[in-house]
Design brief:
This protein has 178 residues and is mostly helical. 46% of the residues lie in helices and 9% in strands.
């Protein structure tokens, strides 16, 4: 779901990035049916990759696929009803902040060997719940509105609006980069 980038921070995987790009493109005119080729060319994503992304989004019921000469893809729901959590789940599988969140048969990684004596299991589970609620509160409508600089649809989530991010002093940023 996430990959490490610079400063030991987490970022969405390329697959999820491309899924977000495809959904954002479709959200700009949620009534239109657009070919995979058009989306790929407009977004600068190779067609085979975009085709696979759109198949995953269709399977997750976030996108509709229409066959035929005028076929293509469109959003299956309003942009305000599609969450970042749904996108990540469609692209990467169930969200799992740490391995012990779902252990045993449900976990693709199997149970964590530290689970019986782990001092951070409970706090990690609280962080997981908070992070999941945040992702469930960010809608495609909010993301597209931020991209355009003006709201074009009434966002249903409030996670982005409520997020308080402390400003970092330039010196602090340089220290973290080294």
């Amino acid at each position: 779901m996430f990959r490490e980038v610079g400063w030991d921070m987490l970022a969405l995987t390329k697959k999820t990035d491309y899924g977000l790009i495809a959904l954002s493109y479709l959200a700009r005119d949620s009534e239109s049916v657009v070919s995979a080729r058009t989306i790929a060319e407009a977004c600068g994503v190779p067609l085979p990759i975009m085709t696979n992304i759109l198949k995953s989004l269709t399977h997750a019921l976030l996108v509709r696929s229409e066959r035929g000469p005028n076929g293509g893809y469109s959003l299956a729901k309003e942009p305000g009803a599609i969450t970042l959590y749904e996108l990540i789940s469609a692209m990467e599988g169930p969200f799992q902040f740490v391995q012990c969140i779902k252990s045993g048969k449900e976990s693709p990684k199997g149970p964590c060997g530290l689970q019986p004596s782990c001092p951070i299991r409970s706090p990690a589970q609280r962080i997981h719940k908070y992070f999941r609620r945040f992702l469930e509160g960010v809608t495609l409508a909010e993301l597209v509105a931020d991209d355009r600089g003006a709201a074009w649809a009434e966002p249903t989530g409030t996670a982005l609006n409520d997020l308080e991010v402390p400003e970092l002093e330039e010196e602090t940023v340089r220290e973290q980069a080294t």
